[in-house]
Amino acid sequence: MEKPILEVDNLRIRYGGASVEAVRGVSFTLGRERLGIVGESGSGKSTVGRALLRLLPGATITADTLRFGELELLTLSEKAMLKVRGRRMSMILQDPKFSLNPIRRVGDQVGETYLRHFRCSKAEARDKALAMLEAVKIRDPERVYDQYPHEISGGMGQRVMIAMMLLADPDLVIADEPTSALDVTVRLQVLNILDSLVRDRGIGLIMISHDLNLVRNFCDRVLIMYAGRVVETLAARDLDRAQHPYTRGLLAAQPRIGGARAPLAVLDRQPEWLEEKA
Amino acid sequence: MSHRRIRFYGAAGQLGTIAVTLLGLLLLTFFIGRLMPADPVRAIVGEDATRETYEQVYRSLGLDRPLWEQFAYYLGDVFTGNFGTSIRTGQPVIQDILHVMPATIELATFAILIGAGLGVPLGVFAAVNKDRWLDHVVRVFSLFGHSMPIFWTGMIALIVFYAHLGLVGGSGRMDQFYIGLVEERTGFLLIDSLIAGEMDVFWSALNHIILPAALLGYSSSAYITRMTRSFMLDQLGQEYVTTARVKGLSRNQTIWQHAFVNIRVQLVTIIALAYGSLLEGAVLIETVFAWPGFGQYLTNNLITGDMNAVMTCVLIVGVIFIGLNLLSDVLYRIFDPRTR
Ligand SMILES: Nc1ncnc2c1ncn2[C@@H]1O[C@H](COP(=O)(O)OP(=O)(O)OP(=O)(O)O)[C@@H](O)[C@H]1O
Ligand SMILES: [Mg+2]
Fold first, then answer.
1. Which among A41, A219, B6, B284 could bridge A36 via Cys, Cβ 3.0 to 4.6 Å?
2. Which of B131, B246, B265, B331 to mutate: most A Cβ within 10 Å?
3. Which residue has the higher pLDDT, B261 or B200?
C-alpha cells in the first residue's frame, strides 16, 4: 500500500470545561481514498475534523500520532499550521448561507485562498478563481464571481465553497455534512461535482455524514463513530455486513424505497458500547 | 421590480421620512416656544410699559392670530433663514449660534477622534480576548469612563494637569493674552490660527483643548468600546470566520479583514450618534472649562427664557440627529450589499 496521507492514533479531545472527552481514542489511516465518518449527533465527527485542522479554540488535543504527510500536526507551530490550512488540508463547511462572508463578493472569497498561499497578482488570483468556478460547473463564472452570497442559491453557494477549498489543490479535504443544508434536488449534483474533482485530482476525502446511503455511494471506506469512539471500520460495499450492533441498528433505521412499510426500527442502545476496548 | 426601481423607491421613501420628521420637529419647537413660561412681549417692552404699548407689540408679534396661522408664519421664517432676535443679546439668534457652534464642533471633533481611536481598538481586543484578563481590564476601564461624574473629574483634572503639573492650558479656548489676536474666519481656533500663521496661538489653543477633549473622548469611548465589543463578538461567532481560518488566514487577518469589515457600518452609526450628543453640547465640561460653546449657550437661554434662541437651538439639535440618521442609512446602502 502507498504511504498514507494521514495517520491518526489514539486521538483524544476534551473541550475546555467539559468533564468527559468528546473524542476518546480514535485511530485510523487515510490514503488517497474517500473515507466516510458516520455516527449520530454528538458522537464527535465534527470535532475530529476540526482537530485535524487544529481549529478547536479552548480544546485540548492529544494523540500518540497525528501525522499528515511528513508533518506531525500536534507539534507544528501555529505559523506552520497557517501554511497547511487551505493549502494542503481544507474543509467544506455545512451551510453556505453562513459559511460565506455576506459582504464580500463570492469570487473574491474564492480567490483569497490562492492569494493567501501563492505569490501572485490580484488578476492572477481572479483567473484562478474563475477557472475553479468553471470546474465546479458554474455556467457563468464571470457573473457569479461578482455576486454576493445572498444573491446565489444554496446549491450554487456550496459549489463556491468547494471551489474555494479545492483551489489550492490540497492533499486532503474534509467535508462536514456538505449537503445536509441543501435542497434534496441539488444534493446529488453537488456531491457528484465534489466526487469527480476529488477523484480526478487524487485528493483524499473525509466525508462526515449522518447518511449511511450517502457514504455507501460516495466513499470507499466507512468509520462508524459512537460516543467519541470508532466502533467499526468497514469497506463501503460491506456496509450491509456490519458486525457491531450499533451499526446494525443504524442500518435497520434507514428508510428504503420499496421496502416494507413497517415502522422504522429505533436504536436500542447498550451500555457496553460505551466501554473502551482494552 | 428592477433593482434600480427598488433603489429609487428607497431613496424617495427616505426623503419622505425626512420631510415628515422635519415637520414634526418644527411643530415641536413651535410649541416649545408657545408653551414656555416666559412672556415674550414682556421681555421686549419691559416691566413698566403701558397697556397700549404691550398690546401693540402683542399684535405686531402676531400673537393675536390663530395658532395655525402663527405656525405658518414660523415655517415661513425658518425657511427664509429668519430665526428672530435674541432677547438676551439683542443680536440675531443665528449670528449668536454661528459664533458659539465652532467652539463646540472643534471640541466635539477632537473628542470623538480620541473616543473612537480608543474605543474601537479596545472593543475589538476585548472581544477577541473574551473572558480573559484583557477583556476584564477593558471592561473596568470603560465602566469607569462611563460612570465618572464629568463635572468632578473635570475639576480634578484641571487641578492636577494644569495647576500642579502645568502640562496643559487652563480654562477657556486659549490663554487670555492671545484673545482677539487672530482674525475669526472659520471660528475654529486651531484652523484660524494656522491660517493666520500664528503658531503661538495654535499651540495655546491645542494646549487648552486637549484636556476637555480627552475627558469627553474617554467618556464617549466607554460607549464605543462596549458597542464595538458586542458587534465584534457577534461576527466572531459566525461560520464565515471559521471559513477564513480554514483557508489559511491568521487570527489577525481573519479579525481585521473579515469580521471587522462586517461591523464597519454599525460602527460608523454609533460613532456618529456619539458625535451627535457631543455636538448637542457638553454643558458640564463647557462650564468647568469656561468653554464658550453651544452647551453653555443653550443653558443660558433656558435659564433666561430667551424664546427664539431656545427654539432655534432645539431645531439645530434635531436637524443634527436627522442628518446623522441619514448618514447611517446612506452608509448601509453603500456598504452592505444585502440592502441594495
Ligand atoms: N465548542 C464546544 N464546546 C464544548 N463542547 C462541545 C463543543 N463542540 C462540541 N462539543 C461537544 O462535543 C461532542 C461532539 O460534538 P461534535 O460536534 O463533534 O458532534 P458531531 O458528531 O459532529 O454531531 P453532529 O452530527 O450533530 O454534527 C458533543 O457532546 C458536543 O456537545
Ligand atoms: Mg457535526
1. A219
2. B246
3. B261
